[in-house]
Write a structure and sequence with these properties.
single chain; about 190 residues; Alpha-Beta Plaits; 3 helices; 8 strands; NIPSNAP
Length: about 190
Amino acid sequence: MGTFTLIEMTARPGGLPALVAALSEAWSPRPPDRLRGCWSVDLGVLNRVIVLAEGGQPVELPLGTVHSDIEVTRSVWHGLPDLMLPSPGKHGPCYELRCYDVLPDRIADVHAAFLGALPTRCALSPLLIAMQSADGAPRFAHIWPYAGLDARQAIRADAVATGQWPPPVSSFLAGRMTAEIMWPLTFSPLQ
């Protein structure tokens, strides 16, 4: 599927509106060519904006005067082979980003279990992207679009009821598992 950069911008309390305004002012007329998605976190770690960009090179962030109030982390990820990122357009508007720390040398096991369970899971709702970290500690992440929070809850309950989801990966994980609910900013190619 290719290489992606995940940029996580965390604003100080009260600073999210200024961060969103700076990004919107710069990117609303014309988002960067490599930008695939840009979301504000609603549930999870708050005061954050998540950017998904194609390629492993940095994306210039138009933070202007708010830069000193923003913590930025960038990580490079490889998309799982044979999974295509959907075209820009409306897929959500509710997105869930799930990320897991993986034990050393167990990422292949996570891939196999995830890919094995994916057909049953994707019959209920489409996957946006699944990827593994290319830098730092081994991690696995996936993003799912939903029509809303109620749809997410119903689809996840149906997925668990199949007995095929979640995939049996717990013995391969290092411990930390996170989930964040995100909503696209107005200029995000993925809505």
